[in-house]
Amino acid sequence: MALIIASFLSFLLLLVLFFYVMKLFSIVFFSIPGSTNIFETVIILVPYILYYAAYYYLAKKIALAKTSIAKVMGSVFLIVGTTIATVTLVLAFMLFFKLHYPWLKILESNSHYAFIVQIIIIFFAAGTIASGDAKEKDWMERGSGEKV
Questions:
Q1: d(Cα 61, Cα 84) in Å, to the nearest integer?
Q2: How far apart, in whole angstroms, are the C-alpha atoms of residue 4 and residue 10?
Q3: What is the pTM of this model?
Q4: What are the tens digits of pLDDT across the range 89-109?
């Protein structure tokens, strides 16, 4: 019982230590001139890197689809999604560099919708690609063909 309590307390102490070190790191990092711009650039890029990674993964899976309609629909979703991601990334960097266009103010207040659309497109692309896969055999069919 003492080992369980000690492990729980040491885990809590490790969390406290981690957050304290991260707080010190952030204080030091943000006192460096120009580091705020680096941080904001990373914050802008991270979601788009995740989206592009998802699209790259799904593009590799398109070749494995058995039906041609799944391949075509998956490709269409990937092209549309990649285009939307690229356009919104360019617009986000235009906002970051503080370019003053009246139509750009619309994205500033509605940028979260672009993220939601990206997630929906990735979901539909994965669904259409998966719909073209062959039906998976259940465990009884898989086991009967193998020799033990």
A1: 20
A2: 10
A3: 0.72
A4: 999 999 888 888 888 888 777
Enter the tokens of residue 134.
């062959």
Pure H helices in the chain: 2-30, 35-62, 68-96, 104-131, 139-144
- Tens of pLDDT, residue by residue over 69-85, are 989 999 999 999 999 99
Tell me how far apart the alpha carbons of residues 77 and 123 are, in angstroms, rounded to a whole number. 10
CA 13, CA 62: separation in Å to the nearest integer?
47
Q: What is the pLDDT of residue 103?
A: 81
Distances (CA, A) of 98 to 11, 33, 37, 105: 44, 19, 12, 10
Residue 118 has a pLDDT of 93
**Calpha distance 27→10 (Å, rounded):** 26
CA end-to-end span of the chain, whole Å? 44
